[in-house]
Amino acid sequence: METDGGAPRFLTYFRVRHHEMDALGHVNNAVYLHYLEQAAI
User: Fold this and answer.
1) Residue 27 DSSP label
2) How confident is the prediction along the chain (41 residues), in pLDDT tens digits per residue?
3) Distance (Å, rounded) from C-alpha 17 to C-alpha 14?
4) What is the pTM of this model?
5) In the chain, what are the helix, strand and coil shares in percent, each to the nearest 5?
6) Which range of residues forms the domain containing residue 33?
């Protein structure tokens, strides 16, 4: 069985701020939880 993903049900954009990244430009794992909380609001 093959399914078509279709259009996303919800889409939001977040700007990654400088203090959310480490020296190598990776976003901190805890920040992803904050993004999910903000998307749920």
Assistant:
1) B
2) 677 777 767 788 889 999 999 999 999 888 989 998 888 87
3) 9
4) 0.57
5) 35, 5, 60
6) 7-41
